[in-house]
Amino acid sequence: MKFEDHFSELASTYSKYRPTYPKKLFKYLANRCEHHQQAWDCGTGNGQAAISLAEYFDNVLATDASKEQLEQAAKHPKIIYKNDSAEKVSLADKSTDLVTVAAAVHWFNFDKFYTEVKRVLKPDGIIAVWGYHLFTISPEIDNLLVKYYKEILHDYWPERFHYVDTRYADLPFPFEEINPPEFEMITEWNLDQVVGFLSSWSGTKIYQQKVGHHPLNEIWDDLLIAWGDEGLKRTTHWPLYMRIGKQSE
Fold first, then answer.
1. How far apart are the first and last CA of the chain?
2. What is the pTM of this model?
3. Average of pLDDT values for 169-188?
4. Fewer Cβ within 10 Å of end Cβ, the chain: N or C?
5. DSSP SS3 for 240
6. Region for residue 168 given its phi and psi (left: phi exceeds 0; alpha: psi -120 to 50; beta: otherwise)
7. What count of other Cβ atoms lies within 10 Å of the Cβ of residue 1?
């Protein structure tokens, strides 16, 4: 059975899945800040990071260039959602204690975004950007995921995606850097959830557009065998990679 034939049977019950950022990440960021009046979550998407920031900050401005994303975001009394771009935000100068970007900064215009960050951050303000991509489950499954990511999708990633591939190591970041501890997300996912996540990748979508079928066809039979019972939930580890810095006058 082809991947598309199998997945069509699941489409009616499938919804997009994303792992949840660890609570200790936001506790750590809050502890790095001297004040907790205002946070800006840029590229907020569905507001996942903004909701966690609201536990520590009096006010959170959560912005995204996509109105559709903001319409799906979870409401919270401390959060204001705005359809602002990363490069021009409706915040006053020196008003913000923390700026966060979860899995999005590599798409921004770096010069313009960082100029805005330096404008809105307080003199002791903090910026934190982080991302994630390839997860680990078991050696046999991991080998297939690496093949999918590095071989099958090799020629189909957007140019800016190389920052994700290098775990932000070469990301422009004009701030006085802070070395953070290591963080990871841990989920219990079944095969359908993993498939949904892989299908959401930009490389997957570009492959489908150019080749005409889903790239998971290339590893599908082996993945079914390696996974076993499709309903079985497996522990999935998602290392986060981060760049954290503070405003430098």
1. 61
2. 0.90
3. 96
4. C
5. coil
6. left
7. 10
Q: Give burial (CB, 10 Å; 0-12/13-18/19+) of 49.
A: buried
Task: Read off the tokens for 53.
Answer: 């920031």
Q: Give the Cα separation of 156 and 168 in Å (integer).
A: 19
Q: Which of 240, 243, 23 is nearest to 126 (CA)?
A: 243
CA separation for the pair 3, 213 (Å, rounded):
9
Chain-centroid distance of CA 102 in Å reads 5
Which residues, in sequence order, are CB contacts of 104 under 8 Å at separation 6+?
42, 43, 45, 86
Does the pLDDT value for residue 54 go beyond 90?
yes
How many CB atoms within 10 Å of residue 74? 13
- What is the C-alpha separation between 35 and 44, in angstroms, rounded? 21
> What's phi and psi for 36, nearest 5 deg?
-135, 40
Q: pLDDT tens-digit profile of 200-221?
A: 899 999 999 999 999 999 999 9
CA atoms within 13 A on the CB side of 158: 9
37 three-class SS: coil
Instruction: Please state, in angstroms and rounded to a whole number, the distance separating the CA atoms of residues 197 and 201.
Output: 7
Q: Which residues contact 238 (CB under 8 A, 6 or more apart)?
A: 19, 132, 135, 184, 185, 186, 187
pLDDT at 7: 55
Element (H, E) at 117: helix 110-120
Residue type, 185: M
Sheet with 176-178: strands ordered across: 79-82, 59-63, 38-42, 96-102, 121-131, 241-246, 176-178
How does residue 249 score in pLDDT terms, banded at 50, 70 and 90?
low
CA 24/CA 168 separation, integer angstroms: 21
